[in-house]
Model the fold of this input.
Amino acid sequence: MDGLAQTSRGVLGSAILLLIVGVIVVWSLDDAAPTKPDAPPSMTAVSSSRSADGDDAIRVALTRRSVSSIRLRIDGSYRLVPLDGREGPVAVPEPLSDRSLEVDPRGIDIAGRRFGGSGVEVVPDSSPAVWIDGRKYRGSVRLHLTSEGGMRAVNVVPLEEYVAAVVDAEMPGHFPTAAREAQAIVARGYAVSCRRQPPHEWFDLYSTPVSQNYLGVIYEGREGRLLAGETAGGRAAAASTESLVCTFDGELFRTYYSACCGGRTFAGDVVFDDGTGSLPSVACGGCDDAPLFRWERSIASDAALERLSELARARMPAFRSIASAKTIGGVSVPAVVAISDGRRTVRLPAVEVRSAIGLPSLCFQLTGDGRRIDVAGRGHGHGVGLCQWGAKGLAERGLSCREILQHYYPGCELTLLSASTAR
Ligand SMILES: [Zn+2]
Done:
């Protein structure tokens, strides 16, 4: 999002006539407040899709892509386990002080041993003990050597310990207990869902909001200050909901959630194309006091035009003007920006426009006069599933964790993961 200010000035410049009009998103804020559901939770077990790592582990990528170096520190004794299994583990009795670990074509050196091949897993004798790039993690850390000559760090952590840290990374500690318990349940279900369809053979999730935010146990903040990545409150939210996930008819589904829906959530299938069609649009009724419930932006047209034209030109070479825009109807459909050259019209989905010009959400209206683009919108995030600020509001009105979840995922049940069922 910061990239807008760094972009060179418009390719199309002021010659382009900007008339982005009529991008309308309809919100229905008058829907009735949620009523308390009466249905008891289901205690039918659902497969936890236990990974080959056992211990119901989750594998979290700590580096977004292959890197040439990381900082590594290990508190206490540990074992180094080659990932290709051709050699046995190496026991190291002393801790490892904070150091930069470089990878070269022959592999990586740790504690005087070189590890080539697939890489190595750092398994501490007591957890948490492994620090990667200033963050301390529970469980072990795998350093996979990549075909690009770099490495990727992957934290292998028990599911419940991961969930506790995600609660604290994703939701402020002062939010009500019921909201944080709901956060724990959706984070757990999201993680297990991703484990069933992992984005990479080495890991199930990213440690960033690309998947779910995960800061480990302790992390270095600005100026090197150490901050808590997880708290007793996060651990309590995980423990009080241990093994619970949301299901529809006994089937786990991907429990998408976002910071603030802006008054009404989007249906899953209008934002994602991964089978989330069962997530309906619902009136929120709880996020009115969120910082980005309503927002406005004013953007220099040339900068925004450059980005929008990059999107549009893929479909419309040499278009000369942005002449109109429209939306498709419905209260639960993200805005569609339409750009015309006077003969043809290109419609750009809100998800692309949001990314191109750095908007907080998919729920917005654009107007422009060729010099500025004014954007008015609501919400923060993709707007599908549980609204985190809405969960706070509903909890403050007395709704329970289960009632909050059944509000955002109507018809869902709370189901215990089965640790005994294989993937
Ligand atoms: Zn909301």
In short: Residues 177-196 form the longest helix (20 residues).
